[in-house]
Design goal:
By secondary structure, this protein is α/β, with parallel strands linked by helices. The chain folds into 2 domains: about 160 residues, NAD(P)-binding Rossmann-like Domain (Rossmann fold, 3-Layer(aba) Sandwich), CATH 3.40.50; about 120 residues, N-(1-d-carboxylethyl)-l-norvaline Dehydrogenase, domain 2 (Orthogonal Bundle), CATH 1.10.1040. The protein has 12 helices and 8 strands. Strands 3-2-1-4-5-6-7-8 form an 8-stranded mixed sheet, with helices on both faces. The protein is elongated and about 65 Å long. The structure holds NADP nicotinamide-adenine-dinucleotide phosphate. NADP nicotinamide-adenine-dinucleotide phosphate binds next to helix 1 and helix 4.
Length: about 290
């Protein structure tokens, strides 16, 4: 059972670019904020803005009802938390906003719950200067009781945080999956930049052209995602054969032009595998079958 907190108090462990931003947002919403950071100098601007500075992580945990953690990685987070095992954790909620893996989140949930506290794991999908807005994307997973207890704090970070469900690792899964989508697009963008450099066309103009198609591309991703979700592979919009041919053309051009072909080699190889599996005449969504084996 989480404590019902009338007092608006929170602690922030980790005052890097993101943690310091979170602490400032809480202060702006009238929270009593206690901060701790490994390097003490980063606490100074927060103290000037009204935060209490804890001498140890334990003191910070004892001072807040919701404990927000945002450091480099789980190894750092776990080392800090190991110093709080004798703190008064009962009925509090740890909001872990450090990026990590689903397994790390689940292990930390078990540790936190053993101390009588609730645990939430979060994926921040925005830069520090984009925090605190109505449209800031913030995904949270963990027990519903912990979510309800920490919601006012989470709403200072993002106008409409989204609860994904009770399994603590879900937020990290979303983080990894969206990063996968973004890095795939980014690598494609960089390869495209090399094509345009070779063609003598300004890369900034190409970036503008690519950006211009992102909203219609977004609609297409949603459509294909729906088909994958429903296991529908009969061609309706884009037969896989188009992508088999297009990726082979990108690969061939890279080789002809003498530009690095690592990205198209991978891409064309994956689509060739789909064709070898007899999927060329199915909808693009059938690509998931290559990855399911
Ligand atoms: N910045 C972003 O755009 C962004 C966006 C989404 C998610 N995130 C996630 O937010 C987390 C923090 O990111 P950030 O941008 O704030 O990073 P950052 O500015 O590099 O700050 C890193 C923080 O981690 C602390 N730290 C690192 N190693 C430590 C250790 N061994 N023991 C104790 N403290 C340690 C640092 O303490 P010191 O000050 O003492 O070095 C600092 O407080 C990361 O997991 C990141 O993936 C960041």
């Amino acid at each position: 059972m989480m404590k019902q907190h009338n007092e608006k108090s929170a602690a922030v462990l980790g005052l890097g670019m993101m943690g310091a931003t979170l602490a400032k947002l809480l202060l702006a919403q009238g929270y009593g904020v206690t901060v701790w950071n490994r390097s003490a100098d980063k606490s100074v601007p927060l103290a000037e803005a009204g935060a209490k500075v804890a001498a140890t992580p334990e003191e910070a945990v004892n001072s807040g009802n919701v404990i927000v953690m945002c450091v480099h990685d789980y190894a750092a987070a776990n080392a800090i938390l190991a110093r709080t095992e004798t703190a008064d954790w009962k009925g509090k909620v740890l909001v872990q906003l450090t990026s990590g893996s689903p397994a790390e989140a689940e292990r930390l949930e078990a540790w936190t719950e053993a101390l009588g506290a609730g645990y939430l794991d979060g994926a921040i999908q925005a830069a520090p200067q984009q925090m605190g807005r109505e449209d800031t994307p913030l995904y949270i997973s963990g027990k519903k009781t912990a979510w309800e207890a920490a919601l006012p704090v989470l709403k200072t970070f993002a106008g409409a945080p989204e609860w994904l469900g009770e399994r603590a690792g879900l937020a990290s899964s979303v983080d990894l999956a969206t990063l996968s989508g973004i890095y795939g697009t980014l690598m494609g963008f960089f390869h495209g930049a090399r094509i345009m450099e070779h063609a003598g066309f300004p890369v900034d103009k190409y970036a503008g052209l690519l950006t211009g198609i992102l909203s219609t591309f977004g609609e297409f991703i949603k459509y294909e995602g729906q088909l994958v979700h429903e296991n529908r592979f009969v061609k309706t919009e884009s037969p896989l054969s188009i992508s088999v041919d297009a990726s082979a053309r990108i690969q061939e051009q890279a080789r002809d032009a003498g530009i690095n072909s690592a990205f198209p080699d991978y891409l064309a190889g994956m689509f060739r595998r789909a064709a070898d599996m007899g999927l060329a005449d199915e909808e693009l969504s059938a690509m998931i079958k290559v990855l399911r084996v």
